[in-house]
Amino acid sequence: MGRQNLRPSYIEEGTEEARRQREAIARLKERGDAPATYYIVTMGCQMNAHDSEKLVGILEEIGAVASEKEEEADLVIYNTCCVRENAEQKVYGRLGYLKSFKKKNPRMKIALCGCMMQEKLVLNKLLKSYPQVDLIFGTHNLYRFPELLETLLDSQGRVIDIWEDKQEIVEDLPSIRKYPFKASVNIMYGCDNFCTYCIVPYVRGRERSRRPENILAEVRSLVADGVKEIQLLGQNVNSYGKNLENPITFAELLEQVNAIPGLERIRFMTSHPKDLSPELIAAMGRLDKVCPHFHLPLQSGSDRLLRAMNRHYDQAHYLDMVKRLREAVPDISLTTDIIVGFPGETREDFLETLNVVEKVRFDNAFTFIYSRREGTPAAQMPQVPAEESKRNFEELLAALSRIGYENNQKWVGRTVWVLPEETSKNDASMLSGRTAHNQLVHFTGGRHLLGQLTPVTITEATAFYMTGVLEEEAVRE
Ligand code: SAH
Ligand code: SF4
Ligand code: F3S
């Protein structure tokens, strides 16, 4: 089957492509010149991080091992992000360093991938001014990494492979998880929302959902492999499944994932408020494994700006969603994304955002100063002075941290279940992990607790994390 075949966008055509890549992996294993060590830098969101896990899976399968030091690696990969400009500047800066490392280590190959590679201007700049880069590929052909690596080794020249868009989804490539007990699963790719500030729809392509049976099979096999917590990923999970041959809603998918024996926790990201259905809210209240946490990006509290952002909801709708979520799950924790300094933002607009923050009392928020992205509609709108945005931004941070602190005090004295993820660098008996409500908790335990849901009594709370003691100790005291 060629790519030209007329075929609806939802068809997952994993098998043939995946087989070709597996063959390339087998050949790479046999040859003596494949990279023996690698170093990956992940610069973007969870999807980007999950893509890196796939690259690591492939590299480990061909026998490469992670290098402690970037300058000593045979293969350095930057998995880039372009959602804001400073992420891009970082890449150019690091490429400068790498040039000198490469002089000392002639075996080193440099690869760039991720969202930034899908921007034409960036690609031209890299081709013209950064000859130290050996391999460039994009977001739509990440799964071709084994073949591209082979081509690079054969050619001894530069290899560039960028595709404009791709509708098929390739399944079933190896991937390595950061934690044995926690994993991410893509449920959809791309985005069709075209918020006017955002570059993601241009670099990740059109929205397409994976078939539920493939998602469920992946989750089942992860659980069989020891995974307890699953994070379902998509740019707008609330519109999952709409374009599938047999349409299914996100709430229905959650129901099916919830039924998988052995799985303990389900999280998901990200939800768009315009597509948040009563059905999903009801499912949140009913399904026992779905964590009582909802990330609902607000972006702005001003109706005028929400319109200019093309977000398709207003402040009243947002607050209504919050009210319904709290009715369904009384102690639900709510987090959000907020942009300050969108073109045309006045003090009044900003105060509307603060107003929502005070009303909702978010548990946490990712806050961003607007970054102008070439090619998006907002780039053409009148920009606001940086000093003004900076001042508003500081005010927003202060409000969020005051509210976060107050919210977290309510947990002091309560016992919560924590999934310990890591030990502290300085003290191996100090563990940290997350509660079902997604709060970060530090407590004294032992390595044997890693990956085991553990009851912890909270003793202290700051705006950003909490500390606690093992429940047994609390009881003994
Ligand atoms: N699909 C998700 C988020 C994707 S990007 C959603 O719609 O919620 C993550 C966050 O980056 C966005 O929620 C937004 O707050 C921020 N962001 C996106 N483009 C931006 C820009 N040009 N400047 C500043 N922040 C931006
Ligand atoms: Fe960007 Fe909007 Fe799509 Fe989120 S929903 S990825 S903010 S265009
Ligand atoms: Fe994610 Fe950045 Fe791409 S936020 S989708 S890695 S532009």
CATH architecture of the largest domain: Alpha-Beta Horseshoe
What would you call the structural class? Answer: alpha/beta
Helical amount among residues, as a percent range?
A: 25-40%
Mean pLDDT, all residues: 92
State the end-to-end distance: 68 Å
Shape: globular
Order of strands side by side in the largest beta sheet?
A: 2-1-3-4-5-6
The total tally of domains equals 3
Number of E-type strands: 19
Rg over C-alpha atoms, rounded to the nearest angstrom: 23 Å
CATH topology of the largest domain: pyruvate-formate lyase- activating enzyme
Low-confidence stretches at least 5 residues in length (pLDDT < 50)? 1-13
The CATH H-level homologous superfamily of the largest domain: tm_1862 like domain
Strand content: 15-25%
| Assigned CATH class of the largest domain | Alpha Beta
The hetero compounds bound to this protein are:
S-adenosyl-L-homocysteine, iron/sulfur cluster, FE3-S4 cluster
Let me know the largest β-sheet: 6 strands, parallel
